[in-house]
Here is the input.
Amino acid sequence: MTTTDSLDLSAHIERGLSDLRELVALQSVSAQGRMLPETADAVTALLETEGFSVARYPGQVAPVLVAEAGDGPFTLLIYNHYDVQPEDPLELWDSPPFALTERDGRLYGRGASDDKGEFVSRLAGLRALRERHGGRLPLRVKWLLEGEEEVGSPSLGAFVREHADELCADGVWWEFGSVTPEGQPVVYAGLKGVVCLELRCRVAAGDLHSSTGAVVDNPLWRLARAVASLRDADGQVTIPGFHDDVRAASEADRAAIARIPGQGEALVEAYDVTHRLGTPAEFNARINLMPVLNVNGFHGGYGGEGSKTVLPAEGFVKLDFRLVPDQDPEKIVALLRAHLAAQGLSDIEVVELESHEHPSRSDLSAPFVQTAVRVAREVYGHEPILHPSSGGSGPMHPFMEYVGAPVVALGIGNVAGRVHAPNENVLRRDFETGVRYALELMDALGQG
Here is the structure.
C-alpha cells in the first residue's frame, strides 16, 4: 500500500461532493415512497460511468441494485443504501434539507451522512484507485445498494439468500461508521439482533368505573406484572432459557473491548443520565456483548389533566429485545410466550411488529478485519476504536450467513451528525479522509 504517494485527491473529493449534492437533491424517502426509482437511476448512472455492470431487481419498496467491476485476488462487497429518513419537522432545519449546504466545515442535508455521503465517498476513493493504477481496478468490487433500509430492509434478507452466489465475496464493507471529534476512526465488526413486540391486554368490552377494581382485574396491573417479571434490577433478562444460546465472547473480543476508551461518560453527560446499569467498568462489555430488553412505551387508561376514576378496559406495552450471537429471534418470542403462560398471564397477547433481525459478529482475527483496522490506523493517524459489535441493529446477518464473509463498518459519520434528525450533517474533514480511506483500503486488499 502506498499511503505517502503524491496522488492529489482534491479533484476526486470535489467530484464526490458534486455527486453528493445531486443525490441529496433527490428526495428518496422510503417511508413515503418518494423518488426511489429516480434515485436508483442516478446511482446506476454513477456506477456505470465507472465501468460497473449494474443489475436491477424489484424490491418490496424500492429497487435493489447489484453492481460489479474490476478483477483481482480479492473480492470486496460494499453495502450501502440510497433511501433516507423523512425531513420532518421541516421548521427545525437551518437550511433546506434537500440542498447540500456547507457551514463552518460541515455539509448539511438529508442523506449527507446516512447514507449518500458514505456511498459517494467510497465511489470517489474508487476513482482515485483507478487513477493510481492506470485506469484499472486491482480487485473485484461488488456493490449492493438498496432503497429500503430506512423502513427495515424488508427485501434484503431474502434477496441476499437468493443471490448468494452473485454476491460471493471475501469481505463486506458495511454502510456506516464514525469518527470521533479527536479524529479516531470507530470500527464495528458486528450488530446486535432486534425483536420488536407489543404486549396487549384486555379485560372488558369498555372502560369501567374504578369502583369495580375490587372485583375486576386491571389490564395495566397485569401488564406491569408481566413487564416486571422479564428483567431484574441489574438489567438481566429473567426469561428462562433466554441466555442458553448466547455465544461466549472470544479472547479477541474481550481484548478489543478492554482497549475501548472511556466508560460511558460521554453518554451520561450528553443525556444527563441519572440511573446507570452495571458499573462504569462494565460499560463497554455490556454495550457490545449483553442482550437486553427495553420497554419502549407503556400505554392505556387516562392520561389527561386531573383525575378520571376509571378502570381501563385495555392497555399495551411496546418492547424490544437486543440480541447477541447465537440467539434466534423466533426462539426468543417462543420463550417469552411460555414465560408469560407460566406466570398465569397467558391472556396477554404477544404481537410481533417489524421484521426481526438476527445478531451478527465477525471474527476479529479475520485477515479482512485486520486489514481494515490497519489501514484505518495509517490513514487517520490514530489508533482505531474497534467494537466487536455495535449496540444497535441492522441487516448484517444475511451477509455473514449466506455470503459467508466477515463484515466491518467504518465510515464518515460524527457524534454531532444528527442522523435521522433535522440538520443531518457530515464534517467535510471526515468526508475527505473517508475518500482517502476508501482508496487505501481497496488498494491494500488488491495487493492480496
About this structure: The chain has two domains: 10-189+362-446, 193-250+281-352.
